[in-house]
Design brief:
The complex is a heterodimer of chains A (109) and B (115). Chain A is an all-beta fold. Chain A has strands spanning 3-5, 10-14, 19-21, 24-26, 33-38, 45-49, 60-61, 72-74, 83-91, 96-99, 103-108. In chain B, a hairpin with a 5-residue loop joins strand 9 and strand 10. Classes of the chains: A mainly beta (109), B mainly beta (115).
């Protein structure tokens, strides 16, 4: 069965420090992975998807099939990056998303 | 475009009461979804509808029913609310983005408390 694991519930970093939010997945098919972000009291929104190999708001994520990981990285954290981040795996023939439990990122001054 | 809209934004129910959460999308998407968000649990899929006229159970369907009224609207019903259903409920619709990629778009959420 498919599974997405985000081992950290809370990650606290100082402004300007590097950020890495971990995501590991388990899936028998060809994975399509996403990072969603939820700012305080706002709806979830797509941050980036692996298939388009984008850099959004300074964040990048590389799919590592050997390690079954899709970690989210940013070299220099900003205060406005404080939010809940969810890693998600597309399954069900492209119809369903399986979410991880989320990591709350707190950027301190 | 309003995207995905949900009503109500907040609701307090007593145990045993029933209610329906409404969701509508104006993006002409075929797929629609209902999730619940609980601390430490992430988002869990309750039900989804891959197209008008079809619905399927997700990970946590017990205690809920859904109706895909038409292509735009997908409602979630709690027949007899229980305190364990206290949660934030998100509706989403899924389709192809401008870049041709699969994407789900979320509503603002409904915060439900069952006493």
């Amino acid at each position: 069965a498919q599974r997405v694991t985000q081992p950290e519930k809370l990650l606290s970093v100082f402004k300007g420090a590097p950020v890495e939010l971990k995501c590991n997945y388990s899936y028998s098919g060809s994975p399509e992975l996403f990072w969603y972000v939820q700012y305080s009291r706002q709806r979830l929104q797509l941050l980036l998807r692996h298939i388009s190999r984008e850099s959004i708001k300074g964040f990048t994520a590389d799919l590592n099939k050997g390690e079954t990981s899709f970690h989210l990285k940013k070299p220099f954290a900003q205060e406005e990056d404080s939010a809940m981040y969810y890693c998600a795996l597309l399954t069900g023939g492209g119809n369903k998303l399986t979410f991880g439990t989320g990591t709350q990122l707190k950027v301190e001054l | 475009n309003a995207g995905v809209t949900q009503t109500p934004k907040f609701q307090v129910l007593k145990t045993g009461q029933s209610m329906t959460l409404q969701c509508a999308q104006d993006m002409n998407h075929n797929s629609m979804y209902w999730y619940r968000q609980d601390p430490g649990m992430g988002l869990r899929l309750i039900y989804y509808s891959a197209s008008e006229g079809t619905t399927d159970k997700g990970e946590v369907p017990n205690g809920y029913n859904v109706s895909r009224l038409n292509k735009r609207e997908f409602s979630l019903r709690l027949e007899s609310a229980a305190p364990s259903q206290t949660s934030v409920y998100f509706c989403a619709s899924g389709g192809t983005s401008g870049g041709g990629y699969n994407e789900q778009f979320f509503g603002p959420g409904t915060r439900l408390t069952v006493l």
